[in-house]
Amino acid sequence: MKDILDKEDFQVVKEGITYPQGIKAAGVKCGIRFNKKDLALIYSEKLADAWGMFTTNKFKAAPLVVTEKNLSFSGGKLQAILINSGIANACTGEGGLKDAWETVNYVSEGLKINKKYVAVTSTGKIGEFLPMKNIENSLKEAISKLSTSGSTEAAEAILTTDTKKKEIAINFKLKGEEIRIGGMAKGSGMIHPNMATMLGFITSDISIKGELLQEALQEVVKKTFNMISVDGDTSTNDMVLVMANGLAGNKMVDKKDADYYKFLEALQYVAEYLAKCIARDGEGATKMIEVVVQGAISFGEAKKVAKAVINSPLVKTAVFGKDPNWGRILAAVGYSGAEVIPDKIDLYLKEKVVEDGQPLTFSRQKLHEYLGSSDEVKIIIDLKMGEVNATAWGCDLTYDYVKINTKYS
Amino acid sequence: MKDILDKEDFQVVKEGITYPQGIKAAGVKCGIRFNKKDLALIYSEKLADAWGMFTTNKFKAAPLVVTEKNLSFSGGKLQAILINSGIANACTGEGGLKDAWETVNYVSEGLKINKKYVAVTSTGKIGEFLPMKNIENSLKEAISKLSTSGSTEAAEAILTTDTKKKEIAINFKLKGEEIRIGGMAKGSGMIHPNMATMLGFITSDISIKGELLQEALQEVVKKTFNMISVDGDTSTNDMVLVMANGLAGNKMVDKKDADYYKFLEALQYVAEYLAKCIARDGEGATKMIEVVVQGAISFGEAKKVAKAVINSPLVKTAVFGKDPNWGRILAAVGYSGAEVIPDKIDLYLKEKVVEDGQPLTFSRQKLHEYLGSSDEVKIIIDLKMGEVNATAWGCDLTYDYVKINTKYS
Questions:
Q1: What letter does residue B297 receive in the DSSP assignment?
Q2: Residue B282: which of B201, B371, B375, B357 has the closest Cα?
Q3: Which residue in A314, A322, A356 is closest to B405 by CB distance?
Q4: Interface contact flag, A409 B323, Cβ < 8 Å
Q5: Among A150, A220, B63, B215, which has the minimal tally of Cβ within 10 Å of its Cβ?
């Protein structure tokens, strides 16, 4: 992350999803979540190139089906995104699909834009139907409140059991033109994206060819949102959307040149920041865990190892207990399914604790104190087989995770 | 299970691993686990046909490597099994291997049997070395205490964080001859066998061809021990061993005839009983969960679904919270990786709560009470695609699981 910040022409600013030119947002209460904002709207003044990535769960929620269709109808263009929290509109059959299409109609009529340029999504309880009348009415309020300073209210309205809003904005220069990117996300439980309910929304005013925007999103999601895990449960509603409306006025990025890679780097920064926010704010979490796997022969192999460690309940509880229990980490490496050579592996937990698969002498007390003092724990696993790295983010498993998830629904 | 008990010539008796003729056992304290029995010895008076199944974890513990070698050297014969709890002798490199071979020597010398007929195994903390002097001395005590009534002490000596000993014995008749089977196991944490630290030991006095014994064990482990999960962590030390010494005097089972299938059924009963004991006694568990997947096109597909549901932290916490949260169950089915048709699936939680992928009207309060009143929760998922079933067993995820696993090691 530091790499980017050190560069003179990258800048992180205290803004959110509405930071790029021509992007407005609003967040209002539509009555699903008692006395909390639960309906967010994002709007681009200019039709934007857009792309989305969706859950791999076979029970894909109705609004995701609808949004995928619209992206296909419009050939990768969007102008508005409507998000409600509290109800997921998943496992709701034909009725749920009809409702999702109906919300598209509301947005299309309210904003006077073509239906195919509308994305809709939902997060919350599975198996319940949307309160359509509430949404119709509150959407009118949201439209009337759309503004370039609405990012925080929108970021709040998409949360469920999250404890913190997750937003970021950055700018960088392409041949003198300032390009802006804004992002917001929600996470918390059922987080094991492939996509997880993880929702991510990224806007930019960059001018970029649609195909390249798609490719950039896929590349970045693979290394960021798809590398976090709170509990190994892949949700029915995971979705990441990006919109780029071209209002920055840069010369269109239309090939994989230096400009493209600069944008990719910026997009990666935004996505990684949001992904880490989600991991840090996992249900009940007290610590974020970062697992770096080095020296793998491929990204796939590195990912298997990183995911196995980040998902292990025994590793997660050990971190909560401030226990430098390297044995549990090695056991997870061993069952990850990756081809590893046990007696080559080095393991670092602040310091090197395992070399060539066997424990070194280290101060258990010192590491216990380190684990106690930091709210970020970094585990580095060096497979010493190849040159490829992967990083995964997650969180510890605590009493509060159990508490949050045992509440009688 | 009832199927067997209803048959006149199957009988479950209050015995354990020493129930078959010619099997003796002992359990003693060797000083690893403070003031608890931690060294068990099983001995067959007659050289037994034997087979083992071992963890798929790449960090396979030293004693498992040694035991696999011995089973290969001896062509599938064993006469003694030594088990210690408290230290796993895993991730201990060359030194750990040397120690494991040395324990084989102790047993071989003490019992005056060939080294290749000795199996050794360990369960407990990873990365620590066995206290060899203690084991050498306590083994002498164990040998002197070997008896046909030593099953309970042996079953106690192999436990770690288990709260209950796990043993069973049954008999049945083959053409008038009584065949006996005894078994014991340990489980608790890092339970996600493929093989998990799950240890299982089964003895019998049946006379059966070695190859058929192997095949029977593989068939049974696939459907029992490999279908349980406490936390998704596959241990470095999982192992199941079977010994059959032929002392029952039956005509040797040497082909897949009715006698073979009767033995297979009996072996399945013993293994399933022990597997369920392990699930029920999972770390911190208050309830056993049984997931039955019906109507799959193959066992592999049914297993994927059953394992995804039994492993889902959100399903496990919902059961702890007595919450009939069918949405979390469907979400797990959806991300299981199995090819399912969402709008075909039926789901039963005592009663049918989902039909064709959509919720039915049911009394949430009644199901909440059912979940509260029972210490076994049965989830039936009907995929309605084929004819194949699979059953998996696990347990709820509770505050105590977190507590047990956050204790600073």
A1: S
A2: B375
A3: A314
A4: yes
A5: B215
Taking the model in full, what pTM does it have?
Answer: 0.79
Active site residues of B: 197
CA distance B192 to B234: 5
**Phi and psi for A150 in degrees, rounded to 5?**
-90, 10
Same domain, B303 and B369: yes
The verdict on a CB contact (< 8 Å) between B323 and A357 is no
Q: Which of B231, B254, B279 is the last residue of a domain?
A: B279
Check whether residue A275 and residue A376 sit in a common domain: no
Question: The domain spanning residue B359 has which CATH number?
Answer: 3.10.20.340
Report the alpha-carbon distance of residue B339 to residue B334 in Å, rounded.
Answer: 9
Query: Tell me, what's the pLDDT at A233?
Result: 56
**Inter-CA distances, B294 with A386, B275, B352, B384, Å:** 43, 20, 14, 7
Interface residue of A64, A233, A287 to substitute, partner B, most B CBs within 10 Å: A233
Tokens representing residue B230 in the block: 């406490």
- Shortest distance between the Cα of A368 and any Cα of chain B, in A, equals 8
The pLDDT, as a whole number, for residue B232 is 56
Q: Do B318 and A342 touch (CB under 8 A)?
A: no
- Domain end, chosen from B239, B259, B279, is at B279
pLDDT average, residue stretch A165-183: 90
Looking at residue A96, which CATH number applies to its domain?
3.60.70.12
Same domain, A158 and A229: yes
Distance between CA A313 and CA A315 in Å, rounded?
6
Q: How high does pLDDT run on average in chain B?
A: 88
Range of the domain at A224: 2-280
Whether residue B180 has pLDDT greater than 60 = yes
Contact A234 B335 (CB under 8 A): yes
**Does B126 contact A232 at a Cβ distance shorter than 8 Å?**
no
| Domains contained in chain B, number | 2
**Do residues A219 and A333 both lie within one domain?**
no
* ipTM confidence: 0.72
**CA atoms B336, B339, B344, B348: torsion sign:** negative
Tokens 């209050």 — which residue?
A: B14
Q: Do B334 and A236 touch (CB under 8 A)?
A: yes
pLDDT, residue B193, reads: 41
* Nearest by CB: B358 against A93, A342, A356: A93
- Residues of chain A with Cβ-Cβ distance to B194 below 8 Å are 335
B218 in the same domain as B123 = yes
**pLDDT one-digit tens code per residue, A343-387:** 899 999 989 999 998 889 888 888 888 888 889 999 999 999 999
Nearest CA in chain B to A59: B334
Give, as one character, the DSSP assignment of residue A117.
G
CA–CA separation, B375 and B394 (whole Å): 12
A274 and A292 inside one domain: no
Looking at the fold, whether B131 and B252 belong to one and the same domain comes out as yes
- Cβ-Cβ contacts under 8 Å, B401 against chain A: 313, 317, 402
Q: Which of B59, B318, B332 sits opposite A342 (nearest CB)?
A: B59
Answer yes or no: do A271 and A295 share one domain.
Answer: no
Helix, coil or strand: residue B312: coil
Q: Is the dihedral of CA B308, B311, B312, B318 positive or negative?
A: positive
With both helix axes pointing from N to C terminus, report the angle between A313-320 and B399-406 in degrees, rounded to the nearest 10. Answer: 70
Paired residues of B223 in beta bridges: none
Task: Please give the residue of chain B at the shortest CA–CA distance from A55.
Answer: B335
CA distance B247 to chain A (A): 39
pLDDT in tens, A220-252: 888 888 888 765 556 677 788 889 999 999 999
